[in-house]
Amino acid sequence: MFPYLLLGFILVPAMEFALLIEIGSAIGGWETVGIIILTGVVGARLASLQGAKAWKRIQAALGEGRLPTTEMVDGLLIFAAGLVLLTPGFVTDFCGFFLLLPFGRALIRKWLVARFKGKVSTHMHFSAGGAAPFANSAKRTHLPDDDVIDIDARTIDPSDD
């Protein structure tokens, strides 16, 4: 993994620098700076809107009683898109806008699922007397209705201090 990160931290800035020089010499330096600022502002706004929609989809999935796995991955990809869109450069802007498109996220999500399939395991634990948090989950935990939890409690009056 380290060689890929090292390559990314060397190759991407070099490509960005070369593109900035080429585009700047073709259309002008200030115009290039203007495009970089414009894509950053537009990208941040789009990422914010997409992030809000992703958050609503996460809440809707939880309300339906299902794990919001796809929605969570989309949220992370939108966050990554926002980060790279705020990074000056044309390569990062292209990657960021690609991640903001639903089909772009779907492609990356499909790749991520294939890459990490079988490497991640999840476990859910339920406390006694509690119900399963996801009603539609394949494996449900049913507890008898007569379970009783004894609690010793005392009331603390804040004015006694």
The total beta strand count reads: 0
Q: Could you give the order of the helices and strands?
A: HHHHH
Stretches with pLDDT under 50, minimum 5 residues: 135-143
Helix amount: 55-70%
What's the mean pLDDT score? 82
Number of helices: 5
Q: Biggest β-sheet, characterized?
A: none
Classify the beta-strand content into a percent band: under 5%
- What best-fitting shape do the alpha-carbon axes yield? elongated
Written account of the structure:
The chain is mostly helical and 161 residues long. The chain has a domain of 101 residues. Helix content is 65%, strand content 0%. The protein is built from 5 helices and no strands. Helix 2 runs antiparallel to helix 3, helix 2 runs parallel beside helix 4 and helix 3 packs across helix 5. It is elongated. The relative contact order is 0.10. About 6% of the residues have low confidence.
Using brief descriptors, characterize the structure shown.
mainly alpha
How would you summarize this macromolecular structure in one to three sentences?
The protein has 161 residues and is an all-alpha fold. The protein has a domain at 16-116.
